[in-house]
Amino acid sequence: MSRSERKWDHIRFALENGEKHTIAFDDIKFIHQSLPNISVSDVRLDHSFGELSLSSPIFINAMTGGGGEKTYQINKQLAIVAREAGLAMAVGSQMAAVKDRSEQFTFEVVRHENPNGVIIANLGSEATADQAKVAIEMIGANALQIHLNVIQELTMPEGDRDFSNTLKRIEAITKTVNIPVIVKEVGFGMSKESVDALSKVGVSFVDIGGFGGTNFAEIENKRRRESLSFFNQWGIPTAISLIEAKAALTEMFIIGSGGITTALDIAKGLALGANAIGIAGYFLRILIENGVDALLEEIKTIHEELSFIMTALGARTIADLQKVPLIISGETYHWLQQRGID
Ligand code: FNR
Q1: pLDDT: which is higher, 263 or 219
Q2: pTM over 0.80
Q3: How many angstroms separate the alpha carbon of residue 130 from the centre of ligand 1?
Q4: What is the pLDDT of residue 224?
Q5: What is the pLDDT of residue 33?
Q6: 235 near 188, Cβ under 8 Å?
Q7: Which of 56, 270, 278 has its CA nearest to residue 185?
């Protein structure tokens, strides 16, 4: 099976997977404030962290690497949505296009459609510093995502089996490129230990890519008939992973993603310390099933709902929202107790 056929399988199975429960987010509760002393028109959704300035705290997370005409069409449509809604957008893995110049058009279209937007390049952790430079130049990227996908690789018959020296390669990339390097998971979450290890090699942005949404173990197991089904429930739920990352020894710029589909969970993710929230599968499903206009309408609704939630909490800015008090109960509370995180 070619790389682009495999990637198309991923899209098909990701869509079939349907929406998931936002597991640990249900354990997180806001505290109602009767006197927020604020108007909806006071709320601002723009937010800056590190070298990144975003006009919305939500962004379109990496999807559709692999190349080919289908990748081109999806990337083009996502880029139009990103431009019209003012969202940052990460592209899917560019490795195929780094290795084969004839595939570059499938990514270049993203910058072409959105000349002034924040666009994030993407490669796997097998990438070298030179490959990272090519991926960045291909789309004039404002940041680079390096994805970690040990479980996905293990569940793929043709996947990698050797995960040594990943940190060394990431360190080489952070030292070479002059834009923010965001190390991301793809739906299995990051522990405090993983975030600490990344910070020690100079990484200052992580997208914890938590468990609860698109599940690449399930997707790969469907393709190979469930033989590694124990990985289907493997991973750190997004809300818990955000708290783990926040407890890291060095303060990091944290991004949250994994199974987020509602304004309430976006608000909870930001209140847990995320600076931005990535959405992949949910946006892709709307785009493929209902088109560009439907996705733009959904983003508008999410922005409006987020403004209402922030108003109810008296939070004028995303920085204010990051400071509101929260009550944490259930499995999440027990997890944090055992991990000694408060
Ligand atoms: C992805 N994701 C992904 N991530 C990455 O870093 N590089 C990639 O090439 C891809 N490809 C990809 C294809 C498809 C079809 C989907 C649905 C997802 C992972 C994505 O960025 C995200 O981390 C996970 O999907 C979890 O977020 P959601 O989907 O639960 O919002």
Answers
A1: 263
A2: yes
A3: 24
A4: 72
A5: 94
A6: yes
A7: 278
Q: Which among 223, 221, 191 is positioned nearest to 206, based on CA atoms? A: 191
7 is in an annotated binding site: yes
Report the candidate in 45, 55, 49 with the shortest Cα–Cα distance to residue 321. Answer: 45
* ipTM, two decimals: 0.99
Ligand 1 atom closest to Cα of residue 10? 15
Q: Return the structure tokens found at 286.
A: 């709307």
pLDDT tens profile 64-73: 767 789 899 9
Residue type, 282: Y
**Residue written as token pair 């750190």:** 236
Pocket of ligand 1 contains residue 92 by CB under 6 Å: yes
Q: What is the pLDDT of residue 22?
A: 64
Using alpha carbons only, give the angle 177, 181, 185 rounded to the nearest 5 degrees.
145
Output the CA 314–ligand 1 centroid distance in Å.
Answer: 33
Separation of alpha carbons 134 and 144, rounded Å? 11
Q: Is the pLDDT of residue 4 over 70?
A: no
